[in-house]
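Appendix B, record 7
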Amino acid sequence: MAASYVSPLQQAKIAYAIRCRDYHLLTDPTVVEALRQPPHATITYPDSPHPRELFDIPCLDSTRRGYHEPMRLVIVRMERFDKRKRAVGKCNGKYIHELFLTSLPVEQFTATDVLNLYCGRGGFEQTLAEEDKEQDGDRWCSWQAQGQSFWQILNQWVWNWRIRAGAAQSPQLCGRQTEWSSALPERTEEVATPQPEAPQPASAPQSSKLPAPRYGAMTVSEGWAKSRHKYAGKDFKILDDESVECPDGHRMYRREIHYTRRGDMQMLFSMNPRICAHEIRNQCIKRTQNACQIDG
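Structure tokens (predicted):
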């Protein structure tokens, strides 16, 4: 995960605990200094004899790299025991570093808790994989946004009913549980009696929070070029956040939402190509495409 994925979570105030591949954070002076200190914890998993050292950085300010606000960084360091190339982690000298970003507070979740919470996702990822394999609830099966939403909600309801019925039939099979570390004791500090100060002239209060960035008005991408005898972006009319109108007057509905590396929101609209007139169809889609689509 990079800043383009973490920043929307931070803006929406959604709690997260995710693996990070932004290994440039290892060059941050705060991170370099933290790695010189003794680790906060050392853990060993049953399936691996190699111990892992945990470094916990409660507040890392990397807003210059595109993150919306400071975040908590947990670094897992392990000695490199072979020379093979690894798909996960950054090899630096004799160590392998793995990065985890989270919004969980230090007072309630230790670095070990954060790592166990992330690694415990395998318990439900297998269940979600079985759901997708049996029902294929994510496939696109409707040319209307309302119909697609109903299809996904119905699939989720059927799957949840199956899980609940199975649990009622076999109550002895309990679900996986995660054991958390005990909460840290509250620290009590002596507070000095404040001394009276001279009155200061009243001034306008200043907000410590930076204003959250907002997206501007929707604009159509200029990806289609007139030189290729295709419609340009200006030929499409934006109706609302859910639909646009093609040059022939047909309504196209929003299908996907992506985020670019700069954090811009990109929406894709499409419609059934069978409703297009044959004369103008070649001006809108490629020969290998089976749907009309436009980037907004």
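Remarks on this record: The CA atoms of residues 15 and 103 lie 6 Å apart. The two ends are 24 Å apart (CA to CA).
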